């Protein structure tokens, strides 16, 4: 199948999320196997050697848990049973990656709810950024004990897209047990043809996708296309490739894609600025002095405590706040790392005093420049 699609150039990337589905880690009904994971771990290692960063989103916990109980009566297939199997199989799944990765592996369990909740979103992002700085390999899975969305929907594809936006990745890679998106589910339609490039995910493209063809995979092509839509909206292209094919994995390291490329709908910066400009703001404001107003107006500075002269209204850590100058003119808006009570205590202080004033620190910036948009910039 793969041979029918010519190789294409992989978009340039520095930080990527790689999603690995259950099918690649566990054969139908069987336990975990390194068979395909090995080549994918090889891709991660060569990416690191090229100075790139990878976050892995890995499924396989339920399949691993089920295999562990093989000798015993299997629990049913209801959600609680699958949650129990996920809890049982999570550690072996992480252990598999640890046995293949050439660096320490960190387990990160997230739910969609965590990522909708602004404070937890910031905390998850800070943790993942720190893990990348520490040069370890984060392996993310949905926290199935407290969330059942994914066990129903195979939503690790969607989770991977959200994580890609969270860590500001410039590429989402989805490794599956099929080499491309086909014009119809190839398991049902022998006439289906592979599609190498999808510039826009139209309803016609969405209609091509069917469910999973296997007993261990859950989402099928539909959730992969949903993930590609989410990533595209965040300015991130997605590629789908056959994770069973070691040659394909190796080619990725050389910047060659055998698979399907889904374009992003704009560039990442535009997508992020658009989101920052239009996300609903809390009823809170931070007033800054002339120096800070000038620095922020330049579009490249973070808001540090020293430039803050006051606050108005209520806001919590993670809320969108408006930043105003001494004359109350709005100059920027952004996600605030501290709640209003903390900002009041930090106003006028040096960043290095944060720890002493509060007894803890979420970082030197009250609003980080990556989370800030200047309202006078073009397009405001
Ligand atoms: N249009 C399509 N193109 C390709 N694969 C499709 C399509 N529609 C449905 N599928 C099925 O989706 C499967 C991949 O999804 P899934 O089994 O959930 O894998 P994973 O474990 O990688 O998430 C393929 O093996 C294929 O049977
Ligand atoms: N959290 C579940 C993942 C379920 C899931 O999304 O599976 P898949 O469709 O194979 O990516 C597990 O680890 O088994």
UniProtKB/TrEMBL annotation:
Major localisation: cytoplasm
Domain PUA: 284-367
Record PANTHER family: GLUTAMATE 5-KINASE (PTHR43654), ISOPENTENYL PHOSPHATE KINASE (PTHR43654:SF1)
Similarity section: Belongs to the glutamate 5-kinase family.
Sequence positions that bind ATP: 19, 176-177, 218-224
PROSITE patterns per record: GLUTAMATE_5_KINASE, PUA
Biological pathway: Amino-acid biosynthesis; L-proline biosynthesis; L-glutamate 5-semialdehyde from L-glutamate: step 1/2
Gene Ontology terms, MF aspect: glutamate 5-kinase activity
Organism per entry: Dyella koreensis
Residues spanning the signal sequence: none
Catalytic activity of the protein: L-glutamate + ATP = L-glutamyl 5-phosphate + ADP
The entry's keywords: Amino-acid biosynthesis, ATP-binding, Cytoplasm, Kinase, Nucleotide-binding, Proline biosynthesis, Transferase
Protein name listed in UniProt: Glutamate 5-kinase
E.C. no: 2.7.2.11
